[in-house]
Amino acid sequence: MSQPLVLGIETSCDETAIGIVKGRTLLANEIASSVQEHARFGGVVPEIASRAHLEAMIPSLDRALKSAKVSLRDIDAIAVTAGPGLVGALLVGTSTAAAIALALDKPLFGVNHLAAHISVDYLTHDKAIEPTIALLVSGGHSSILQINDITSSITSLGSTMDDAAGEAFDKIARDMGLGFPGGPAVDLEAKNGDSSAINFPRGLTQAEDWRTRPYDFSFSGLKTAVARYLESTPDYKRGDVAASFQEAIVDVLLQKSLAACTATGIQSLVIAGGVAANSRLRELAEQRCRDAGVLLRIPSPLLCTDNGAMVAALGSLMSSAGRPYSAIDLSASSSLAVTTVSV
Ligand code: KG4
Ligand code: ZN
Question: What residues make up the domain containing 227?
Answer without folding.
Answer: 130-298
